[in-house]
Amino acid sequence: MYDVIIVGGGLAGLVNAILLARSGFEVALFEKNSYPFHRVCGEYISNEVKPFLIRNGLFPTDLNPTEISKFKLTSTNGKQAELALEMGGFGVSRFAFDYFLFQQAQAAGATILQNHKVKDIKFVDNEFQISANRQDYRSKLVIGAYGKRSALDKSRKFMNKKSPYLGVKYHIKIDLPTEEIALHNFQNGYCGISQVENNTFNLCYLSHRNNLKNKSIDEMETTVLHKNQFLKSIWDNADFVFEKPKVINEISFEKKELVYDHILMCGDTAGMITPLCGNGMAMAIRSAKLLSDVILEEWNGGNFKRFQIEENYRMHWHQNFSSRLWTGRQIQKMFGSKWSSNLAVRLVNNEWLGNWVVSQTHGTEF
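^ thats the sequence. predicted structure below, dont judge the formating
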C-alpha cells in the first residue's frame, strides 16, 4: 500500500515522485523500461523552469546542458527567419536528464520499479488497485504520467480519433550553431534540431503518415524531407550516432481528459503542446509542480477530499496550459506546406510578431 503510485517515469512522473517523496509520502513509480534510455523528444527546455529546477537541486549542471538563445525557422522551399529568444532555454538529452532525475527520486526515498509495465488500474472502494508484472499494488492516489498514448488510454476519448502523425528522432554530430534551435519545414511535417550535451545534436521530426506510404523511413527522408535544402545539408554532413532512428506512431494533439476515473493525468498524458520551438519538456515539469502542490495542500495526513484535489488540479492546469495548447494547435496549422510555412517565416521575421508567437507557447518563470 502506497500513498501515491505514479505510472510512467518521464519528466512529469519523476518530478512528482521527487517532490512528494521529499515531503514524506510513500511513493512508488512504475517505469516499463530501465534507465537510462532514449525517448522521442525535442530535448529543448525553455528557461521558464530553470528557477524551479535550481531551487530544488534538479538543474543538471554536471551534464553541461547547452544554452540556447536563438530560433531559426525555414519554410518547405528554403526561406528562412531568425529570432533572438527573449527567455531562452537549454538543451539536454532525455537519456541523461531522465537518468539524473531517476537518481534524485531514489535519493528522495521513492520506490522506483523499473521494467514494470502496468497492465490495469482499477478504482474500487475509494482506493486504487494496480496490476504490474503479475503483482498487485494499492494506493490512495494514482498519477498517470505514461506519455503520449498507452494501452491504459484505451477508454479515453482521444483514442477514438486516430492520429496521422509519427515522430522520428536521431542524435547526430555536426557543425551547427550551438546556441540555436532550428525548425525546418517539409511537406506535411517539420523537423527540430538543437544541441544537447557532449557536442551532440538532437534531430527530431514530426511527419504525417502519408509521407511514409509505401516507403521506408530512409526513402521518405530522401524524397520528402530533403526537398528542404537545409535538411538535405544536415543529412549530407552529419554523422548519425544511432544505428537506427527512434520512432513513435500516432502522436495525438487532441484534447485529453485531465482526470479520468480519478487518475490524475500529468505531462503528455494530460495534453501535448505542439512544437513551435519545443516546449513539451517544460510543460511536463511545470504540470508536475502544479499537481504535487495541489496534493500537498489537500493531503491532511491522508484525510483528503478526492474531489477537491481533482477540481483544484483542473483549475490550476487550465489556468497555466489551456491557452498555450490552443495556440499551439493553431500555430501547427502554419507548418508543413509551402504557402503556410512561408507565411510563418514572414511572421517570425517581424521581431515583435515573432516574439509574441513564441511567448504564446511558453509560460513565465516560476
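Residues 118 and 135 are 10 Å apart (CA to CA).
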